[in-house]
Amino acid sequence: MSLQKPPNSIKIIAGNSHPQFAEQIAGYLNLQIADIHVIDFANQESAVLVKESIRDEDVYIIQTGCGGPEKLNDHLMELLFMIHACKAASARRITAVVPNFPYARQDRKDKSRVAISAKLVANLLVTAGCHHVITMDLHASQIQGFFNIPVDNLYAEPEVLKYVKLKLGTSDLIMVSPDAGGAKRVASLADKLDTPFALIHKERAKANEVSRMVLVGDVKGKVCVLVDDMADTCGTLCKASDLLLERGARSVIAIVTHGIFSGQALARINQGSLAKIVCTNSMPLSNVAEASGKLEIIDISPTLAEAIRRLHNGESVSYLFNNPV
Amino acid sequence: MRKCKVFVGNSHPKLGQLVCEKLGIDPAPVTLKKFANGETSVQIGVSVRDEDVYIIQSGSPETNDHIMELLILISACRGGSAAKITAVIPQFPYSKQSKMKKHRGAITARMLANLLIMAGADHVVSMDLHASQMQGFFSKPVDNLYAGPTLAHWIRQNIENYSEAVVVSKNPGGTKRVTALADQLKVNFAMIHTDRRRTRDGFMGKKVRGKQPAAKINTTENGEVEQENVIVSTDIQTARIVKGHVVEDTSAPHEEPQVQHTSDIANDNSDDEDEPEFNASEKLITLVGNVQNRPAIIVDDMIDKHTSFIAAAEHLRMNCGAKKCYVVATHGIFANDCLERLNECEYIDGIIVTNTYPISETKAQNCKKLTVIDVSPIFAECIRRDHFGESISVLFDSLAVIT
């Protein structure tokens, strides 16, 4: 019997939020997803059981923030339980892979007496026993500072650039930010594609509701590409698209990282003036994609798979910030 | 105010004094000195047992010394059994380092937040944090006050036909701040983008120039469209910047007297800390929006370096037809010769900042264009309300201007 350290071993655990995505990541890494069992008790509580040994293993738990009104909190709790279960089972290192970070929009006290829920979720993850977090296109990159563990915020931008260059070409394009907060993201894309950009400012009446819109920039005769980090109810995107067409745009395409599509979002897009909406597969979209002919999907799992591989092998992740996989 | 002590640090005694005057109390006695080896020493001259303690310390040119002083003050009050300690930090130091730069950056603002909490602060009051998400860095409550209403009030009072004005963000990252002010003033806004990557030829071809008549038509259009609840503006105007100054694109490679600035231009796209630092001396500056024949107001949260403001002002006045150009910010940090340079720039008509950050008297007197707005009433009112357990949210109201 030798006491030499066993080879660096890795385990991928998939939560119930987006099993297909986890499958894809594991596929790229040539790994099997570890066997876990989730028990749902009659009173809506759930329990997690990891069915193989993870002692001294490098564990990656893939769970995205999704599921709408019924399931989102369940998935978050499940993630916390899985982390805790791994901790109790003596995993060497636990990394939560959360492509779409839940509650990311509640990241500051924008009104009096609101909770900074993103901070709370960060604290919960750390308390549960997480050592590292991988996420993608955080709503505000300051959320990284809410954790006192390392956070790798990956960007979908390289894949989006690749998509635009291959599928749309860059002539006649104009990048448009649907709100003032996203101007930086759009300016960065526009620089890399060498296209002009414009922005729309909305004066919000209520959350998730759009009122007056102001367009700054000239879109006449151009193909407009609306870029945002997430599409939720799609009210903004549809209104923005109407406004752009009214201002003489040839057609309007939307590219978002996280396609949340709550409620009537896809029906709205199908009836609306958007020519196409492109999103990554960070959220489960299998049923949804069939429902909408306008939806196109960029596969982002290679980026996450590569990030996991690099992290596991102790290589630099920064290559992924500027290069598609 | 009973059971309340206000300590004033060395960073900005004048602001502390003003706040105390507004509160009608004297600053609590404290001896702040430095040992010969550079260590800071604090001696509190009054009992703080079971008292509500407020410590006013802003950023300053000697940031690190004053941070240490603040931490030691907090710790001394904690050791002196104060009931509650509130750090009042009008300009939060290191706030630009609030996120990870693309490669291996430290989130220094978070570290500073941890230090404050560790030292024993129970509550933090600041103004116009560089990113409002920074409130989440603290495990204790943070009140982020706004200078916006006060600045808007000044603009309404002092800028002729301000309703015609356009507020301009000098980089895409600051657009959100600018739109907030634009909404308050009910005026239009525009944005400037400076970029090093674009090829000049590729962009010049598409460039819109000499479009003055068209712009005028746009203005009338605005009127009609506004009634339908949609406003449209504009064309995009682009020019070249060489060594921090806007040049006519017809001119040959420009000869510039101020060659020594080449280095800071490279890293001064200000808000975009995460951008790689190129050493290019030639960039393209683009205005998105319309300022033709209107006063332009460049708004940002802080002024620390001058180059991007000057380039923006030159572009607005020379190429985009702005009538006047004002620079408005909450924190006037004015590193090095920034203030002098802004004052010398003929395209800037006024520099407006608040007194959250100390500006030396002689500097301020030599700068005729500078206006410093006093925000001590806001802090005084915040301290008073906090002490008596009243709501602070009225201070956030866009209409409330306390003078």
From TrEMBL, chain A:
GO biological process: 5-phosphoribose 1-diphosphate biosynthetic process; purine nucleotide biosynthetic process; ribonucleoside monophosphate biosynthetic process
EC code(s) of this entry: 2.7.6.1
Pfam families the record matches: Pribosyl_synth (PF14572), Pribosyltran_N (PF13793)
Uppermost EC category: transferase
Keyword Zinc carried by entry: no
GO molecular function: ATP binding; kinase activity; magnesium ion binding; ribose phosphate diphosphokinase activity
One of the record's GO cellular component terms: cytoplasm
Pathway: Metabolic intermediate biosynthesis; 5-phospho-alpha-D-ribose 1-diphosphate biosynthesis; 5-phospho-alpha-D-ribose 1-diphosphate from D-ribose 5-phosphate (route I): step 1/1
Source species, domain of life: Eukaryota
Keywords attached to this entry: ATP-binding, Kinase, Magnesium, Metal-binding, Nucleotide biosynthesis, Nucleotide-binding, Transferase
InterPro entries according to UniProt: PRib_PP_synth_CS, Pribosyltran_N, PRTase-like, PRTase_dom, Rib-P_diPkinase
Matches recorded under PROSITE patterns: PRPP_SYNTHASE (PS00114)
Catalytic activity: D-ribose 5-phosphate + ATP = 5-phospho-alpha-D-ribose 1-diphosphate + AMP + H(+)
Name assigned to this protein: ribose-phosphate diphosphokinase
Organism: Ogataea polymorpha
Biological classification of the source: Eukaryota, Fungi, Dikarya, Ascomycota, Saccharomycotina
From TrEMBL, chain B:
Region (Disordered): 249-277
InterPro entries: PRib_PP_synth_CS, Pribosyltran_N, PRTase-like, PRTase_dom, Rib-P_diPkinase
UniProt entry tagged with the keyword Transferase: yes
Family annotation (Pfam families): Pribosyl_synth (PF14572), Pribosyltran_N (PF13793)
Gene Ontology terms: biological process: 5-phosphoribose 1-diphosphate biosynthetic process; purine nucleotide biosynthetic process; ribonucleoside monophosphate biosynthetic process
Main location: cytoplasm
Keyword line: ATP-binding, Cytoplasm, Kinase, Magnesium, Metal-binding, Nucleotide biosynthesis, Nucleotide-binding, Phosphoprotein, Transferase
Gene Ontology MF terms: ATP binding; kinase activity; magnesium ion binding; ribose phosphate diphosphokinase activity
GO CC terms: cytoplasm; ribose phosphate diphosphokinase complex
Enzyme class: transferase
Subcellular localization(s) per the UniProt record: Cytoplasm
Pathway membership: Metabolic intermediate biosynthesis; 5-phospho-alpha-D-ribose 1-diphosphate biosynthesis; 5-phospho-alpha-D-ribose 1-diphosphate from D-ribose 5-phosphate (route I): step 1/1
Biased segments, Polar residues type: 259-268
Reaction(s) catalysed (UniProt annotation): D-ribose 5-phosphate + ATP = 5-phospho-alpha-D-ribose 1-diphosphate + AMP + H(+)
CDD domains given in the database record: PRTases_typeI
Superkingdom as given in the UniProt entry: Eukaryota
Enzyme Commission code(s) on record: 2.7.6.1
Residue stretches spanning the membrane: none
Compositional bias annotation for Basic and acidic residues: 249-258
Family that this chain belongs to: Belongs to the ribose-phosphate pyrophosphokinase family.
PANTHER family linked to this entry: RIBOSE-PHOSPHATE DIPHOSPHOKINASE, RIBOSE-PHOSPHATE DIPHOSPHOKINASE FAMILY MEMBER
Name of the protein described by the UniProt record: Ribose-phosphate pyrophosphokinase 1
